[in-house]
Amino acid sequence: MDKFMEMAVQLALDNVRGNTGGPFGAIVVKDGEIVGVGQNNVTRLKDPTAHAEVQAIRDACHFFSSYQLDDCEIYTSCEPCPMCLGAIFWARPKAVYYACTKEDAAKIGFDDQFIYEQLEVPHEDRQIPMMKVSPKNSDAPFQAWDCSSEKVSY
Ligand SMILES: [Zn+2]
């Protein structure tokens, strides 16, 4: 376990030293083997979703050619942000191990506490307002999915 966490931390450190992204690294492990790696690549890829955990999940899913990480473990250099936590729950690994806490990250300018707070605010009052819009066909995709015999449940 320590070996994998040390590797995740090393990925994070390498990312800073190589000036390729933020100080975050993650790996996905199955049965003691590394099946995915990720570093924070937000600035390099100009992709706000390119957090280390998401990158590692993408890498492992590509490796397995699957959208699920059954029986996998994720080792991340820092406690996942809300976006990564969502991605982790969708990927369904069996456990997540983290080194630094979100409080540690906040001390160096990576504060995601406001996202947790925004979840408690009514949609229209959030910092980024979210409004419901309902065109006539808004439920058509759900109906089509519900009736589809070719859908792949996930
Ligand atoms: Zn994240």
From TrEMBL:
InterPro entries, A to Z: APOBEC/CMP_deaminase_Zn-bd, CMP_dCMP_dom, Cytidine_deaminase-like
Gene3D superfamilies linked to this entry: Cytidine Deaminase, domain 2
Biological processes per GO annotation: purine nucleoside catabolic process
Entry annotated with the keyword Hydrolase: yes
Gene Ontology MF terms in the entry: guanosine deaminase activity; zinc ion binding
Source organism, top-level taxon: Bacteria
Keywords, ordered alphabetically: Hydrolase, Metal-binding, Zinc
Residues annotated as domain CMP/dCMP-type deaminase: 1-111
Zinc as UniProt keyword: yes
Similarity comment: Belongs to the cytidine and deoxycytidylate deaminase family.
The name this protein goes by in its record: Guanine deaminase
Organism name: Mesobacillus persicus
